[in-house]
Design a protein that fits this description.
It is built from 2 helices and 11 strands; from the N terminus they run αβββββββββββα. The protein is an alpha+beta fold. It has a single domain, classed as Immunoglobulin-like (Sandwich).
């Protein structure tokens, strides 16, 4: 009797775990848009089609080893002129519509130097994601994004990239669903 109970319990556990995995796994499709390197920071921008049918623009900023980037939340001119925010933005001419706030992959840290308001990301890559709505239709369109960042080490900073307009080709919502 105990072995039948254990076998039944084991089967239920397997079924529940399979149901949990199928409900919580969020598959997404990645559509590469553009990649470039400027001031030794590699930037790759993708469009993600999420399992729920929504879209995210995603940009990964990879600074050189030993360098950090600054928080998306510092002022556009830095703090007391120091640093520049890491940003992925839609330009005023963009036909894409933001449907939520910019999301960061890692939380910024308070630096161990002044000014303490100059929040920095940990060393290494940072991904920023922006929920968006695409235009309806199957046709892709020319669009543009704006990128800002500045990479610094303990000893030096690379020149900032401020409001760099990056042309991209965005699939229409119907085309992105059929990829």
């Amino acid at each position: 009797m105990k072995s039948r109970y254990r076998a039944s319990l084991f089967c239920w556990m397997i079924l529940l775990s399979m149901a949990f995995v199928s409900c919580t796994s969020s598959q997404s499709e990645t559509i590469p848009l553009v990649s470039f390197t400027e001031n030794d920071v590699n930037v790759s921008i993708n469009l993600l089609r999420l399992a729920n049918g929504r879209y995210m623009l995603s940009s990964t900023f990879t600074p050189p080893e030993g360098y950090h980037l600054y928080s998306k939340d510092i002022p556009s001119t830095g703090v007391n002129g120091l640093g520049r925010p890491t940003l992925l933005e839609l330009t005023s001419r963009s036909s894409i519509i933001a449907s939520g706030p910019l999301i960061e992959s890692v939380k910024p840290q308070v630096p161990d130097f002044e000014p303490m308001e100059l929040l920095v990301y940990p060393l290494g890559p940072v991904t920023l994601s922006l929920p968006v709505e695409l235009s309806l239709g199957a046709d892709s369109m020319e669009d543009e994004l704006s990128i800002t960042y500045m990479a610094c080490s303990a000893n030096q900073c690379k020149p900032p990239v401020e409001g760099k307009v990056v042309p991209v080709r965005i699939p229409g919502a119907d085309a992105a669903e059929n990829k």
